[in-house]
Design brief:
By secondary structure, the protein is mainly β. The chain has one domain. The protein is extended, with a radius of gyration of 21 Å.
Length: 139
């Protein structure tokens, strides 16, 4: 309600150069049914709102997280950070799939592979000899 009282009309789109965003003044934790009602988030345990940045936390187990709407200015780029902590994978690796939809159609996305153990990092030497590129493992 505090956010709604601050707003004079709609909030500006993310990436917009116009207007101040009253959400900058909001700092709270949102849980339960309020996640879907206030943020349009389904499948999260809680959301930690810190001004215009929101951290969405998912509980353990397989979860489908849905953000029903993001208000973006056309052509703007939005940073996204994904953390996976205290993993309990059933196999050696698992996946996080992130899909992007517009008007109900899938228009993009990315899949992240999560592993229990990372293989040893291998390094290489890359050298050019004329028109040839030679790649050799570093000892």
């Amino acid at each position: 309600m505090a956010l709604l009282e601050l707003c004079q009309g709609k909030r500006p789109y993310f990436g917009s150069r116009f207007g101040n965003d009253p959400a900058e003044e909001v700092h709270r934790v949102i849980e339960g049914e309020d996640l879907a009602r206030l943020l349009g988030v389904i499948g999260a345990a809680r959301a930690e709102v810190d001004g215009t940045t929101t951290r969405i936390v998912v509980s353990h187990g397989k979860t489908k997280l849905v953000l029903s709407e993001l208000r973006l200015q056309r052509g703007s780029k939005m940073p996204l950070r994904v953390w996976a902590r205290n993993l309990q994978l059933e196999e050696e690796s698992g996946w996080i799939h992130i899909g992007q939809r517009s008007a109900g159609k899938r228009i993009g996305g990315v899949s992240l592979e999560i592993k229990q153990q990372l293989p040893e990092l291998r390094t290489y030497d890359v050298r050019r000899h004329g028109d040839q590129v030679v790649v050799t493992p570093r000892a």
